[in-house]
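pasting for ref
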Amino acid sequence: MSMKKTDLVKNLAKKLDGRMKTAGVPDRFAQGAAQAVDKREQRRRDAAAGLVPFACKLPADLVKRLHERAAAHEGGVNALVAQALGKALD
């Protein structure tokens, strides 16, 4: 049995769609595409460094102040929060 032309086109579209979904999306203009690390690998690196994920809810104005200071801090938000918590707990 031969297939209709519309069925052939549908099958071709499904194949193309599947390829597009499985292909990775590189960074802008492929800069740093090789540097991209998947979530599992990032978790392994964090665990090796002794880092543990810690989620909490903070007021919006405090988060805004944290982001402003983190922009100038060399370690980013994570290092700034760790430093502030360390000072507060000592």
